[in-house]
Design a protein that fits this description.
The protein is mainly alpha-helical. It folds into 2 domains: 30 residues; 124 residues, no CATH class. Helix content is 57%, strand content 0%. It is built from 9 helices and no strands. The longest helix has 19 residues. The chain is globular. It starts with 13 loop residues before the first helix and ends in a 34-residue tail after the last helix. The relative contact order is 0.11.
Length: 199
């Protein structure tokens, strides 16, 4: 129960059994706090939610592709976060909501405290702490898939920029395969068939 798949290395003994019992006894309190925080989240306006999401995306992109990395251009230099925001405006609401939820979970103080011992949001950590925090997500079997989704999302915003792909000899443009849900509609030259008859 205390390890819960996390790399804590705890073994069972009297003190860990006691700790588990105390933690289990606090479940009603956490349930209450979670419900209260959830209700508080409903009071956040859509504009505030998007602003916070943008901040998380920008900080995550900068942590993945910082200045002085293997490729000279950083995520900030090519506005990778802006491209991700544009992508989220294009995808169906279900995908947009899912990625937004994952971003807020990743940014939560609870996970940052559990993995770094700091009571901070991800966006408030310094670069070294961010890298350590992200490493824990990538090294954990249960969290790896979420970390990969977030990494692929910011990678889209980064690697599709000419300043990035031209630096390793690709002529571009680098455009990912079109996902199955994408429907661009009729092309500019096509006109819908008229249902009425001309007389």
């Amino acid at each position: 129960m205390l390890n819960s798949g996390l790399p804590l290395g705890l073994t069972r003994n009297t003190s860990t059994d006691l700790a588990a019992l105390v933690i289990f006894a606090t479940y009603p309190v956490w349930f209450y706090l979670g419900a209260e925080l959830g209700r508080a989240g409903h009071r956040i306006t859509q504009a505030q939610r998007i602003k916070e999401r943008s901040r998380i995306i920008r900080e995550l992109a900068e942590a993945e592709y910082p200045k002085g990395g293997a490729i000279p251009a950083s995520a900030d230099d090519v506005d990778a976060a802006g491209s991700v925001e544009s992508l989220l405006l294009e995808v169906p609401p279900l995908f947009d909501d899912a990625i937004t939820t994952l971003l807020f979970v990743f940014d939560s103080r609870f996970f940052v405290l559990a993995f770094t011992g700091r009571w901070k949001r991800f966006v408030d950590l310094d670069l070294e702490e961010k890298e350590r925090y992200m490493e824990v997500w990538k090294s954990n079997t249960f969290l790896l898939s979420i970390a990969q989704i977030l990494r692929f999302t910011v990678s889209y915003g980064y690697y599709t920029k000419s300043m990035v792909y031209s630096s390793f000899g690709y002529n571009g443009p680098m455009v990912p395969d079109v996902p199955p849900w994408y429907n661009p509609g009729p092309s500019a030259g096509e006109r819908p068939a008229s249902s009425g008859s001309s007389g």
